[in-house]
Write a structure and sequence with these properties.
The complex is a heterodimer of chains A (254) and B (393). Chain A contains 13 helices and nine strands. By secondary structure, chain A is α/β, with parallel strands linked by helices. Chain A has a single domain, classed as TIM Barrel. A nine-stranded parallel beta sheet of chain A has the order 5-4-3-2-1-9-8-7-6. In chain B, the strands form four sheets. In chain B, strands 3-4-14-9-10-13 form a six-stranded mixed beta sheet, sandwiched between helices. Chain B has a four-stranded parallel beta sheet with strand order 7-6-5-8, sandwiched between helices. In chain B, helix 4 packs across helix 5 and helix 5 runs parallel beside helix 7. The longest helix of chain B has 16 residues. The chains are: A alpha/beta (254), B alpha/beta (393). Chains A and B meet through helix 3, helix 5 and strand 6 of A and helix 8 and strand 11 of B.
């Protein structure tokens, strides 16, 4: 069984953390993963840095730029992650833009993911139609789940379609925005969370974008199976460092 | 072979819409409506009237007598430099703002590199009384002060793009992020034949007025409606797409595309995408683009700010791959020299982008009876500082 499915079977509420590989320091990837697992995080999304991350807000853009400056590449990340499954047992998802994967060679990319024990991919600029046409067979062959995004603007018909194609979970973007932390959710978001919950989708939903603290985590997970924190975690890493990760996780789940 | 876009939004291997789900509703709304709206009689009427009375179309197809004598061939210039705002860009912004109004949008965003498309967008927003926000790389804002001032005078807000390399590609990223954050009331006027489908096709259609006019003008002047060559400079490729459009599937007409070699193709400072680019994804489109082996998009260079885009429109990538068009790249120096030559032989000071196209005359031989149409895509006013510095005028 894919580790993502296993996790959703075992846990009621999933806390997932995103960070940009190679940031703050090039060799932080494995120490961050170990800290996150020890702190009880359920799943991790490892960001593959890109020069032009057009779905991301300033925090993730800057971390991505810094990671590239530090010398992060796709090959470098795979090298860092080699043997990671000796220590890390929670689901690992790679999140990145399509172009670097294409240049690495899509099949080669998938093969390396499988060797390492990556469970799935999130590729924001790979729409579901293109995925079905260009990459679904390949991803299936290497046991990789591809997770799709939905937003408050996504039509019900399209959500049903995405639900049908999806494996693992559906990434529910909290508001019409690029990534970035918010301190609270408003009525519009709560209504949207409720609307999706009432659709009773087959695939579990996890809320991302704008989750920054215990309050937004609570609000998101009361209507979905989990939440993803990116920008707020990256800011914490920059200011507090890898060693203090447990405090961040504790502050979210308190 | 057909060189137009297919029903899925591809030109051969290139094109498509590689967009985040957050952009899907906007792009899909446009895709479902752009052909229908632009075919409506009321749309066509308004578009044609504005092109005539506001932009100043048709632009002349001018026989360049002295140049023709010197190169012993028949050289025509399609005078897009005479359009209001000084370049072909306004053909597209007029079309798109009419489209935006019919889609019920009241806020306009745009990206700009040198500022020409920003000015053309700010102009039509002033014309229609619509809010206008132009994203421009922080570096470009410093380099292109007169155009920044123009946009401000026209009532637009110019927002600096501080991310990445702080130039055109980053301004485009910022405009896309703005659209993600404002999915309901905003239309994004892309300035070239780039971006996700339907943009490359929509922009090409709005620019196709260039070759539509060329057809009847040539008929009047030469007794046939097609030339032997159509020649244009290509950055993203909108002026070229406009000149090629009605000749794409006419094999009697040879197509030449001129890219900016910058300081030389192998100098590391170039914008010759066809020579240096590899297939990939940029701004939602599969096309040829300049990038590292790891798939990071690199910063191009040309002395002309309008040609230093790291990609090329998917139509042009297809014309290149199928060899329907011949691609030539011209270094800064030759382009600058042609700025002077055209000024002194024909009394036309061209934009530096435009000057690149004419350098074809030095690298290719043409027969006396052959008819060449160059797209004289923009005037050189905006480049005066560069010309002054370069020639110590």
């Amino acid at each position: 069984m894919n580790r993502i499915d296993q996790k959703f079977k075992e846990e009621n509420t999933i806390l997932s953390i995103y960070f940009s590989a190679g940031h703050p320091n090039l060799e932080d990837t494995v120490p961050i993963l170990k800290q996150l697992q020890a702190a009880g995080v359920d799943m991790v999304e490892i960001g593959l840095p890109f020069s032009d991350p057009l779905a991301d807000g300033p925090t993730i853009q800057e971390s991505s730029t810094q990671a590239l400056r530090n010398g992060m590449t796709t090959e470098k990340l795979f090298t860092q992650l080699k043997g990671i499954r000796e220590h890390i047992h929670i689901p690992l998802v790679l999140m990145g833009y399509y172009n670097p994967m294409m240049q690495f060679g899509l099949e080669n990319f998938c093969q390396r993911c499988q060797e390492i024990g990556i469970d799935g991919l999130i590729i924001p600029d790979l729409p579901v139609e293109v995925y079905q046409e260009e990459s679904q067979d390949l991803f299936n062959r290497y046991g990789l789940y591809n997770m799709f995004l939905i937003t408050p603007q996504t039509s019900e018909e399209r959500i049903r379609y995405i639900d049908k194609v999806s494996k693992g979970f559906i990434y529910m973007v909290s508001s019409a925005s690029v990534t970035g932390a918010q301190s609270a959710f408003g009525d519009v978001q709560t209504e949207y969370f409720q609307r999706i919950q009432d659709m009773h989708l087959n695939t579990p939903t996890v809320v991302g974008f704008g989750i920054s603290n215990a309050e937004t985590y609570q609000a998101a997970t009361s209507h979905s199976r989990g939440a993803i924190i990116g920008s707020a975690f990256i800011k914490f890493l920059e200011n507090e460092g890898v060693e203090r990760i447990p405090e961040f996780i504790k502050s979210i789940r308190s | 072979m057909n060189y137009n876009v297919n029903e899925k939004g591809y030109y051969g291997d290139f094109g498509g819409a590689y967009i985040p789900e957050m952009l899907y509703p906007n792009v899909e709304e446009l895709r479902q409506n752009y052909l229908r709206i632009s075919a409506e009689p009321s749309f066509k009427k308004e578009y044609d009237e504005l092109l005539k009375n506001y932009v100043g179309r048709p632009t002349p197809l001018y026989f360049a007598k002295r140049l023709s004598e010197k190169y012993n061939t028949k050289i025509y210039l399609k005078r897009e430099d005479l359009c209001h705002t000084g370049a072909h860009k306004v053909n597209n912004t007029i079309g798109q703002i009419l489209m935006a109004r019919r889609l019920g949008k009241h806020r306009i965003i745009a990206e700009t590199g040198a500022g020409q498309h920003g000015v053309a967008t700010a102009t039509v927003c002033a014309l229609m009384g619509m809010e206008c926000i132009v994203y421009m790389g922080a570096l470009d804002i410093k380099r292109q002060a007169p155009n920044v001032a123009r946009m401000k005078m026209l009532g637009a807000e110019v927002r600096p793009a501080q991310s990445g390399s702080k130039t055109l590609k980053d301004a485009t990223n910022e405009a896309i992020r703005d659209w993600i954050n404002n999915p309901v009331d905003t239309h994004y006027i892309i300035g070239s034949v780039v971006g996700p489908h339907p943009y490359p096709d929509m922009v090409a259609r709005f620019q196709s007025v260039i070759s539509e006019e060329t057809q009847w003008q040539l008929q009047e002047l030469e007794g046939r409606n097609y030339p032997d060559y159509v020649i244009a400079c290509v950055g993203g490729g909108s002026n070229a797409a406009g000149l090629y459009y009605h000749y794409l599937n006419d094999e009697r007409v040879k197509i030449i595309a001129v890219e900016a070699a910058g300081k030389g193709i192998n100098s590391g400072e170039s914008a010759a995408t066809s020579a240096l680019g590899k297939e990939g994804i940029i701004h939602g489109s599969k096309t040829l683009l300049m990038q590292t082996a790891d798939g990071q998009i690199t910063e191009p260079y040309s002395i002309s700010a309008g040609l230093d885009y790291p990609g090329v429109g998917p139509m042009h990538a297809h014309l290149f791959r199928t060899q329907r068009a011949e691609f030539i790249s011209i270094p800064d120096q030759e382009a600058m020299d042609w700025g002077l030559t055209l000024s002194q032989m024909e009394g036309i000071i061209p934009a530096i982008e435009t000057a690149h196209a004419f350098a074809v005359l030095d690298v290719r031989r043409f027969k006396p009876e052959e008819i060449l149409v160059f797209n004289c895509s923009g005037r050189g006013d905006k480049d005066l500082d560069t010309y002054i510095d370069y020639f110590k005028l």
